[in-house]
Amino acid sequence: MKKPEFFSMIQNRKKLLTKEQVINDVIAGSVVAIIALPLSIAIGISSGVSPEKGLLTAILASLCVSIFGGSRVQIGGPTGGFVVIVYGVIQKYGFTGLIISTLMAGFILIILGLFRLGNLIRFIPKSIILGFTAGIGVVLFSAQIQEFFGLRTGKLPVSFFGKWNLYILSFKTVSITTLILGLISILIIITFPKVNRIIPSYLIALIVVTLIVKFMNINVDTIGSSFGHISSSIPMPELPDFGIINIKNLILPSITIAFLGYIQALLTAVVSDDMIGEKHSSNTELISQGIANIVSSLFGGIPATGAIARTTASIKNGGRTPLAGLVHAGILLFILLICVPLLQYVPLTVLAAILIVVSYNMGNFSDCIKLIKEDKASGFELILTLILTVCVNLVIAIAIAMIVHLIRVKIINNKIHTNRIKIRNKKIGIA
Questions:
Q1: Run of H or E residues at 283
Q2: Where are the alpha helices (DSSP H) in 364-393?
Q3: Phi and psi based region of residue 78 (left: phi greater than 0; alpha: psi -120 to 50; beta: remaining)
Q4: Could you write out the DSSP letters of every residue in 390-404?
Q5: Residues in CB range of 7: below 8 A, 6 or more apart
Q6: Rounded CA gap, 79 and 399, in Å?
Q7: By mean pLDDT, which of 123-137, 182-196, 371-385 is the weakest?
Q8: Phi-psi bin for 277: left (phi > 0), alpha (psi -120 to 50), beta?
Q9: Cα-based torsion angle of the residue sequence 124, 107, 392, 160 in order, rounded to the nearest 10 degrees
């Protein structure tokens, strides 16, 4: 974005900050912080890092996206879609490998923004977007089985089928108590919005199940028993040791993180545009997402992008300026610095339950079924993308699905062109 345009955007946003709007943004930011608290913790743990890193990422990403973003209502943070990728990178290259991958992904996003490639998203068909989000939802769901059932599996493999093979072999170790608490958590998450739509059901489930475990002295795995001491301090930024890992090995994970961040951030921005009646700047948004990931990696956080659930929640509660994102970050910072010791009592099964619901919502399975019924060719692309995302990886899934899509479009265009020639020839009497 050109410098005058950037400052023009800042001026326009300042004009929106009336007294009434400031109040609405503070309320919206507070609601989103309550939603983000259990989600950020659950995503951090499921990604294979300590819970406070999920919170730290939500704080830093939200600050960067709110200050530098091309959408005035986008809320940044860790999302469920990254869980599978982050867990795989940590298993293969360690936490240092994740930090370097996230740092490189941040620079990739900035480069995409500077070269004004934000509009490329319109070339990715709906079938492929639905396919890979459904695939990520399936894999995210699979990653929660161990904690939800209380299985004693040991270290989980990265592969989808490897996980399920281990689950089946370990199913005799299921904890009925843990499973019941997980089912209670899902029941609360699903039913509480019918009672009250203002207070997030994720938080209610976390509080209720934690209190049940604490006061009934139930012996289940908690954050404290699994992670021990949880740091409540903000670490100093530092560059990772690039000499430990061959950078060439991290190019593919970096591209995968950048690509997923690209898709989620811009799709969220498009959705928010429809809700507030304003068009975002895709390239500026990419640059802000790149900055967010660089900052997160320097402070020891995990990848982040635009969070559609948190962004839409902010809008529905009156958020219309970046102030809502800043308030959200400020409240999470307070919780990180003051309230982290209380997190040790949270059962892991309630966090698994939260992500199971998130994975289901992420899958958009009703939209997938509808598309498959309406358009068999697009349905094939969707299923192909889903299967490859689950069985191989996101980048290969998108690459192969796009090749199939382009071949299909080429065949259709050739048929249309051939039919037009036949019609024209028939009109002028050529056999």
A1: helix 282-298
A2: 365-374, 376-391
A3: beta
A4: HHT-HHHHHHHHHHH
A5: none
A6: 23
A7: 123-137
A8: left
A9: -120
